[in-house]
Write a structure and sequence with these properties.
mainly alpha; 14 helices
Length: about 300
């Protein structure tokens, strides 16, 4: 659906100038190769942002970054057969990468260790499923995992402030202070990890971990790939918020305690990807989630009390 919307908007008049400039792709023949490469990269980065803001489909943006051109019905006749083959191959390469990333996102964001059939377990699975859908939709729109980490973190802090009955103005102070101290939280989770018994995984979980590790090792995977520029990161955030808000709307019947816990889990999941931390670190924490999150809650109650005095 996101790709269809993007392709429909790709024909807007405002993009015609961009297309013509992108098609030239010609640099002076006597220009040193390293200078030409640098200028081409700057052109690509700038135009990628223009394309994003104009809702051009991510597969077209990827193909442009690979070939230096956007191919349309109007300009197809200007290309050599080799150039057209390069364009089609770039599109196929993007689709292969996108499909692999979608499978990896599904593997990463599934609630693997919650197997019970209680109402609580069902609510957790439902919440995580919707947050995973938000992540998939963000990926389809070309939004990075770093933007999703940010919105999951803010959603968790908002839910935490609500539970601790922190006033909105104090909640904003807490957000600012804790945002600067987020490394402390990662250190806390590493302490918890050291306290956990050495996990013994059954074969099915070992297989799942191996698949995730393999997906994370693929060059240029979406998992843990930062935005290309500060401007691109700024463009991503409102869209990431929108995808999260859609997920929250679907979860309106899930109670606040579950949402708080699952926001934190999904933030932690994404943080592990973005910091390129070992997969088994996440899986061990996740397998002991209730125990770990209780300690996180106790820590945050003390943290909030000390910082807001």
């Amino acid at each position: 659906m996101a790709k269809q919307k993007a392709r429909q908007s790709a024909g807007k008049p405002g993009l015609q100038i961009v297309r013509r400039s992108a098609l030239t792709g010609v640099l002076a023949p006597d220009m040193p190769a390293e200078v030409a490469k640098s200028l081409r990269q700057e052109l690509t980065d700038d135009l990628r942002l223009v394309f994003h803001r104009s809702h051009v489909s991510p597969d077209l943006i990827y193909a442009f970054s690979r070939t230096g051109r956007i191919v349309t019905d109007e300009n197809r006749h200007l290309l050599t057969p080799e150039q057209h083959r390069d364009w089609k191959e770039a599109l196929r390469e993007y689709r292969r990468r996108a499909e692999a990333d979608e499978r990896a996102i599904d593997l990463c964001y599934t609630l693997l260790h919650e197997s019970g059939r209680s109402e609580l377990a069902n609510r957790k699975r439902f919440a995580v499923s919707e947050l995973g859908v938000a992540t998939l939709e963000a990926h389809e729109e070309g939004i990075s995992s770093f933007a999703m980490e940010g919105v999951f973190f803010n959603a968790w802090l908002s839910q935490l402030a609500k539970r601790l009955h922190i006033l909105p103005e104090d909640g904003e102070r807490l957000r600012e202070k804790f945002g600067a101290d987020v490394a402390e939280l990662r250190g806390l989770l590493e302490e918890f990890y050291d306290d956990l018994p050495t996990p013994s995984w059954n074969p099915s979980i070992e297989k799942r971990i191996a698949k995730i590790e393999s997906a994370r090792a693929i060059p240029e995977t979406w998992l843990g790939k930062a935005p290309a520029s500060k401007e691109e990161a700024e463009w991503e955030m409102p869209l990431a918020v929108e995808h999260l808000q859609n997920a929250i709307e679907f979860c309106k019947d899930v109670n606040d305690d579950v949402m708080e816990s699952m926001f934190f889990r999904t933030w932690f999941r994404t943080r592990v990807l973005n910091d390129h931390l070992p997969e088994r670190f996440f899986q061990a924490i996740d397998a002991n989630w209730s125990r770990v999150y209780e300690r996180v809650q106790n820590h945050m109650a003390r943290y909030a009390g000390a910082r807001l005095q």
